[in-house]
Every structure is written in structure tokens, then in C-alpha cells.
Amino acid sequence: MDLYIKIVDEWKFPDTDFEIIKSDWNSINEKIKQGKAHEISEGDTFYLGASTKGAKGGSQRSQPFNKIQAKQRAYSFKQGYLNHIIATLNKDSQINYGKIISSKNEIKNRTIQEIVLDRFKPYINKTINDIIGDLNYNLNKNAKGFYTSLTKLMLGISLDKEIEEFDKAGIKLKTIRLKSNNLPKEDISFPTFSFLEIVDEEWENSFFKEILETKYLFVFYKYDENNELKLNKVKFWNMPQKDIIEAKKVWNKVKKIVANGDIVREVKGKIRYTNFPNKDFNKIAHVRPHALNASDTLPLPFRDRVTKKMEYTKQSFWLNNSYVRDTIYPN
Q1: Hey, which of 65, 127, 235, 314 would disulfide with 291, CB 3.0 to 4.6 Å?
Q2: Where are the beta strands (DSSP E) in 147-253?
């Protein structure tokens, strides 16, 4: 009763969106026909999803072409798509969008993946300096958002605009620098998680599961023999269900550690050794600090048994660089 009605307006699906939604429906339908309804993930599609329904995020039911039971699902629009509708109807919104797909005809016989990847083809195997030269744009290579800016320009999007299709689909951009052996220089970080929230989460609605089911655009740069970075590969990717199940083990352990106040294992001098799962615990993901310094903390739901404190340094889930090399990059 205390909520305000902020926006009342009409919405009509743009023709280009309708084609993408149709493609998403076909993708979900094809997976069911292949007997893979149990492998459906929110990251499989762009605008139209197949969200879980029922108790605790998906009651099990029979599927037509496989004896394995699959979670009950319903068609739904992605959160990013709904957010875009709200932003579009909100007259006070300051977001400016640039489009990759300009007309319905452009996507009539091609997928959004094909259109996006084609934009990068002229720049594959070129150095960063050559790409900047081709784009004829003065970019500061030391700027924090350099790779995001470079990606936008290759896609034909102005730097002062957001990528409309990515915003609608909730696609996250990840730029990876590869060494000569194809191992990324760094693990892939995700946003900091809340200690207070994770102890009350159920897996199906958890922050980490949402991250894992996101669709990503990976842009790989690789160092050549002269130690120069070249654009090596660009691909859309979302984590397979079997790997999400494996990564869930990391989330389970973190939740238990925080709930039991067992974060710190021991303290030697000024160094705190934790019980958080490291790379040896799981082939896909691990947990480690993601903070400015040790004093950059978040509150704990329960006092840590060793430090006796009600706060701890901010932490994040990270994808192992070996997983990126062995699973994401080669496929």
C-alpha cells in the first residue's frame, strides 16, 4: 500500500527484438527436442529465458525425449530486458543507447551471435595499436576502461552510449589477456559478495548462481613473439549445467564457513590464512580477496572464531585461469 506508481505507459516490441525472441524460443525448443531439457540454462538465450518454477527454484518433471527429469520452467523475459523497458519508458532516464542491429532485415536470416562476431573479423590477429589505427580514434591505453572502449568501437558503438543489445540480454563483457601457452595472465574476478546475504541464500536464487548463468562475450588477446597483444578470438559463452553443479560446491563451502564463523584458519604475523576454497579445492572456481586493502571490509553475520571480529576483508568468487584455458578458450 505504501508503494508509488512511477510509470504507466504502453510498450510495443521492436521488430528486431521480436526476431531475437523468436530465435531464443527456437533455441529452447531445440534443446528440449534433443532430450536436453535438464541442461537448459538462463545463459543459453538473449532476451527470452526459461526460468525455473516451483519450490526452491524448480520442481522436477518428466521431459519428452529423455528419462532424466528436468526442472519445471516457464518462458520469461530476462531481467536486463525488463530493465531496458523501464529505462526506455522512464522519461528521467539518462541512459543513451547505441544499436548493433539497425533493422529487422539485418537479423532476419542471421543470429545476433553471427552479427556481433562478424564485427570483430576485420581486427582478428591485429595488434592493439593497429586496431586503434584502423578505428582512427585516440584512445588512452592506460585508461581503466580501455578494453571496454576498444570493444565498443569495434562494434560500431560510440563511447558515450551503452550497447543496447547487451544491456537487454544482460551480457557481460570479459577481456582476457593470454600468455603464449594460452593461460590467461589472471583469474577472472566477479563482484564482491555479501557475507550477510550468502548465509540466508538458497542456491537457486543465489548471487553466485546468477553470475554463473550469465551470458558472456569473451574477447581474447594473446601476446605474440614480440610481446605485443593481438586480438586472438571473440566468442559468446555461458557455463554448461554440469560445470555450474561443480562450481556450486564452492558456494556451499563458503556459506558453511561464514555461517560457522570459520573464515580465518590461523594468523601468522600480519597474515591471515583462511578456510575459503582455493584452486586446489575446485577445478572451476575459488574465493579470495577483492578489496582495496585488508581494511576494506564487509560485516559478518557471526563473529569470526579466530579474530573475534564482526567484519572481514571483502571477498569474491573467481574463475580459475586454468578453467578458462581448458574449457572456455578452446571451444
Answers
A1: 314
A2: 162-163, 172-178, 188-192, 216-223, 229-237
